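Backbones bend. To wit:
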Amino acid sequence: MNETIEQKLVKKLIAKNYKISFGESCTGGLLVATLINASGASKVVDESYVTYANTAKQKILKVKKRTIAKYSVYSKEVACEMVEGLFKKTKANVCVSVTGEAENQLNDCTCYYAIIINKQKWVEQVSFKGSRNEVRDLQTKHILTRIYELLQQY
């Protein structure tokens, strides 16, 4: 039986003795919930946050109100501030933030996500089509796969 991406990721994090934290918006906790499906997740997840509302992003992850006003909540700038605030709060080896759309009737749903691994940062954009939950599932699988790929460098 093939291993799921969450099983592979948890094994990789355990092998490296890394902790992971998430600051989620459009995925609504699906990233951490999916990772927790894998056996051993309790060894790598200490804390994670769903910051769906702008006020939660500001309060918990210290996203600046002016950043949201200037660039929109669905921006790489907000994803960056989210992951930086998450890192300051959790000090996890791997920090991941995501913000964007999960539902758009006319176009692809775009999200920005940021990943910090041992203080090195990546910010990327991805777009998917589908229903709200299909898009959230696709975003989640994509981001977990990307974290796993980046961890191969360490």
Observations:
- The mean pLDDT is 96.
- Strands lie at 20-24, 49-50, 94-100, 109-117, 120-128.
